[in-house]
Amino acid sequence: MTQMGEQGGRVLTRSEATAHGGRNGYIETPDHHLGVKFSVPQELGGDGGVGTNPEQLFAAAYAASFQSAIGMVARRDGITFGTSQVTGVVGLRREDDADPSYHLDVELRVLLPGLSREQAERMVQEAKALCPYCRALGESVGVRLTVVDEEAGG
């Protein structure tokens, strides 16, 4: 097997999943902890069936990773707040109808109850620097980081 793009450093953990059938198929992991059926959303010409889609999985993974990064910042700085929420919203977009390629549209909505908006925005920016998903996407995807108020409910 040829591995391309290997990075330096020590790998702490690896996860693996295999796709079968693309957006109309399913994915599975070798340990059988995850087995998910896919279906194509109606907006992309599919039947909108009972399966999930790659964007939902990415939204979930990105939200969980970012929330963990916020927790790291909070522990490091001794900051406490209520029960936080991070909602990942991931979509597909096209630049124009003539362009057949898709681009990700990503937003993370962050609720940090008990913090002022300024404190929450500072924590979000510091978490962005720690989150591996944020670093992987870099500036190639314009991720919107939105601090939401408790009244908005995340």
Automatic annotation (TrEMBL):
Q: Which InterPro entries match?
A: KH_dom-like_a/b, OHR, OsmC/Ohr_fam, OsmC/Ohrsf
A family per Pfam = OsmC
Positions of the region Disordered?
1-30
Q: Name one GO biological process term.
A: response to oxidative stress
Top-rank taxon, per record: Bacteria
Stored Gene3D superfamilies: 2.20.25.10, 3.30.300.20
Q: Which family does it belong to?
A: Belongs to the OsmC/Ohr family.
This chain belongs to the protein called: Ohr family peroxiredoxin
| Organism annotation | Deinococcus terrestris
